[in-house]
Design brief:
Radius of gyration: 31 Å
Strand content: 5-15%
Number of strands: 8
Structural class: alpha/beta
Shape: flat
CATH architecture of the largest domain: 3-Layer(aba) Sandwich
CATH topology of the largest domain: Rossmann fold
Largest sheet: 5 strands, parallel
CATH superfamily of the largest domain: P-loop containing nucleotide triphosphate hydrolases
Distance between the termini: 83 Å
Number of helices: 24
Helix content: 55-70%
Strand order of the largest sheet: 2-3-4-1-5
């Protein structure tokens, strides 16, 4: 038989082995025991926290012929067919590779078919946020009113990308990152059964690197088991994961403290030659320095720090540690958008060295002003007055330009044009899950087009705050509107209250043929 990876081999066979999600497990078991099944569920949370495993267990258990206290018996024909991956009524779909309208239409066509051997037909749609807007729209009606024998389970790591209309049709369960204690309990169970030799510090290194994801932790253990001939050590885990050891961190931070530029560059070059992942090692440095700050604050945690680490932290003051951690966080941010991670790290570390050279007073303490308080107050009032005058003048010009544009739109406005826009306005819903447009789309859904010509639209917003917000993003909102309406319009935004005041005036001007156009 071909080798089976550990995370597949030890995928939970019952809810008992779903670690770290006690509230969710209890709720799902009660739902099964009390026969209070919903037609659609949404499982959200970080990767590797048990979403898909729980979905499969739930599907197996509701079809179990002899479930006991909300858990599957694993003995009946239904359970055996599920365990052998041969149950035709439990359909798992990967939305990342099946994200089009056609795939969802195929589901809709097959939903009407009754289960072939089970009580319920269960559709598990993994990474559901990857579905296209058209696919979501195709799914909505089926999701809301499926046949009584059909249940949908949607799983995603990014629920914010789902339309609100989809979320509102589901019972939502938020999975948490697995705690270190639960992760250790699970890994120790696997280690015992597989007879793996591993040191305690190596096991903790795996847990730290997995960032709360059980699948990542088991995968790393599997990789280390294949890599090592004898006992798995912390050095083996660090080599496999691309992170660095505490001794390397101490060497690095000591060199920062003594401002050894050449030594720092030598360390960075070595990490590069060793194939270290600079994103991961930056995270490790941040976590290490965080412990130093807590140590300075006399906050103690369940970790034994040896003399070398304590000596290092004693050599630094709090201000220096904050300076380093701020720069390290900046490094992480820059690395997300650039593939030259080593170069970013090197330049930012040189910047840290330069800043550590500057006196703390110069860097963090403001110099007292020599100007007396009366002079300062007079100067401040003068500047404020000038700024206020400039702002008043700018606002006056903006209002005049708005009036001109409103005049132009109203002069050529037509009922047909505003009716056409009203029909397409609800298409804004489709852009609520698009990263670039979701903020503008959300505000515009609260707005109302009140007048339109072939060249321009007047749009009202319920509050001044919303008006200011949309005008800050004027170009993007205009692009969105023109994309929806498939035309190039000039846009004027005003508040609903303002429109109520000015509309009668414009109507009167039109009636008397006095509307002034420029």
């Amino acid at each position: 038989m071909a080798y089976q990876t550990l995370y597949r081999k030890y995928r939970p066979k019952s809810f008992e082995f779903v670690f770290g999600q006690d509230t969710i497990v209890k709720t799902l078991k009660n739902v099964i025991k009390n026969n209070k099944l919903s037609h659609a569920y949404l499982f959200t949370g970080p990767r590797g926290t048990g979403k898909t495993s729980s979905a499969k267990l739930f599907a197996k258990t509701i079809n179990c012929l002899n479930n006991q206290n909300g858990d599957a018996c694993n003995e009946c024909d239904s359970c055996k067919s599920f365990n052998n991956n041969s149950n035709p009524d439990i359909i798992e779909i990967d939305a990342a590779s099946n994200n089009g309208v056609d795939e969802i239409r195929e589901i809709k066509n097959k939903v009407s078919l009754v289960p072939s051997m089970s009580k319920y037909k269960v559709y598990i749609i993994d990474e559901v946020h990857m579905l296209s807007i058209g696919a979501f729209n195709a799914l909505l009606k089926t999701l809301e009113e499926p046949p009584e024998y059909v249940i949908f389970i949607l799983a995603t790591t990014e629920p914010q990308k789902l339309p609100a209309t989809v979320i509102s049709r589901c019972q939502r369960f938020d999975f948490k990152s697995i705690t270190k204690e639960n992760m250790k309990k699970c890994l120790e169970n696997i280690i015992k059964k597989e007879k793996i030799c591993i040191t305690d510090d190596a096991l903790m290194e795996i847990i730290d690197n997995s960032k709360g994801g059980m699948r990542d932790a088991i995968g790393m253990l599997d990789q280390a088991f294949a890599f090592c001939d004898n006992e798995i050590s912390i050095n083996d885990i660090q080599e496999l994961s691309g992170t660095i050891s505490n001794s390397e961190i101490i060497d690095f931070l000591n060199s920062l403290k003594t401002e050894e530029y050449s030594r720092i560059l030598e360390i960075i070059k070595k990490w590069s030659n060793d194939g270290k992942d600079f994103y991961l090692l930056t995270q490790k440095l941040i976590d290490f320095i965080r412990k130093g700050i807590l140590y300075k604050k006399n906050v103690f945690f369940n970790e034994n720090m040896d003399e070398k680490i304590l000596q290092l932290f004693n050599n630094y003051n709090e201000t220096e540690l904050y300076l380093i951690i701020d720069n390290m966080l900046e490094i992480l941010n820059k690395m997300q958008f650039n593939y030259q991670k080593e170069l970013i790290f090197e330049i930012q570390v040189i910047k840290i060295l330069d800043e550590l050279n500057v006196s703390r007073e110069t860097l963090y303490k403001k110099k007292p002003s020599k100007i007396n308080e009366n002079t300062k107050a007079k100067s401040s009032k003068t500047v404020d007055f000038k700024i206020e005058s400039i702002n008043d003048e700018l606002n006056k010009i903006i209002c005049e330009l708005k009036d001109i544009r409103i005049n132009n739109i109203l002069k050529e406005s037509s009922r047909n044009e505003i009716n056409f826009i009203d029909e397409l306005w609800q298409n804004l819903n489709d852009y609520l899950i698009e990263e670039n447009y979701k903020k503008c789309a959300g505000i515009l859904l609260e707005s109302k087009p009140v007048a339109a010509s072939k060249k321009g639209i007047i749009i009202t917003l319920p509050t001044q705050t919303m008006l200011l917000e949309i005008e800050k993003n004027y170009d993007l909102s205009k692009k969105l509107i023109n994309q929806i309406l498939n035309n190039e319009y000039k846009i004027v935004y005003i508040t609903s209250e303002h429109w109520k005041k000015i509309r009668p005036k414009y109507v009167e001007l039109v009636k008397n043929c006095k509307l002034h156009i420029k």
